[in-house]
Design goal:
Largest sheet: none
Number of helices: 5
Radius of gyration: 14 Å
């Protein structure tokens, strides 16, 4: 049943989980960065957790039979890269993302773009 679960369905499920867990929206993330004295640090920690959570969710979906969409293939992915991955994705597809969308969607798309499965 899950053997050929399309990426769109996986992403919809991820968004459902994100909304049920009250994921931070892009607006909230930017407000945190601007309004708190240590906002940049907090936002970076959030993005690192978001990146690790997205990878774990993806790995679990693949174990359940979904087609992989993020393939590291031995390439490096370090916590310090989370902010740059996120910001690059926002710049690359600025017209796609609205401020009330969950940050998790941006991170999932960033990882799938930078680490595609061929």
């Amino acid at each position: 049943m899950f053997r050929r679960l399309p990426l769109a369905l996986c992403m919809a499920f991820a968004l459902g989980l994100a909304q049920s867990a009250q994921a931070m929206s892009l607006r909230e993330l930017r407000a945190l960065e601007k309004n708190d004295p240590q906002g940049d640090v907090y936002a970076l920690y959030y993005l690192v957790g978001l990146m690790e959570g997205t990878l774990e969710f993806h790995a679990n979906a693949v174990r359940m039979g979904a087609a992989p969409s993020i393939c590291l293939l031995g390439r490096r992915l370090e916590p310090r890269m989370a902010g740059e991955l996120f910001d690059t994705e926002l710049r690359r597809r600025a017209e796609l993302y609205e401020v009330d969308m969950p940050a998790q969607l941006v991170m999932a798309n960033a990882l799938a773009t930078v680490y595609p499965c061929n």
